[in-house]
Amino acid sequence: MAYAFRLIDSLRSSRGHMTMSGLPNGNLEITSELVQPNRLHYKIGSKELILIGPTAYSRDNEGPWKKGGPINIPGLPIKQEDIFQMKSEPFIRRILNNPKLAFKGKISGEETIDGYKAIIYEITGTARGNSRAEIFSMRTWIATEDGFPRKLEMVNPVTGFKGTIRYFDFNANITINPPI
Fold it and tell me: Which of 6, 18, 16 is nearest to 172 (CA)?
């Protein structure tokens, strides 16, 4: 699984679609486009955000664009300039290396995602010392043809959170330009 996320981190461009439910403020849908080394385009509910290096552009409800400097993104405890340094593999490793959790993994099947045959890898995390208290589960669909993760699903049965990410358009010709 680590190899699949290293592949994601090596891409020059990609798109993603995330849905989250069980959040305190309701459900959330996010679409993203990434062009390395420093361009991101997010649609988060009714908000839209474009990051190009240290410059941010944002708008609400299809309104006018506003240009600004580095911004803080709600829910992300990092600075804008550090976003482009974030990598998938270390993030997954940080979850799996949590000393308070014990993990079990298995292959739970196969499925076709966006035309790619994929193997489904499942990891379940429980509190150390209480193997019956499931805290976290993650399923990852990894394409057999190219080794890329095509889908990731995270569930926290304690909080009711569920998040699904679909990865696609790897190394596609994506252009992200300043909107104003």
Answer: 16
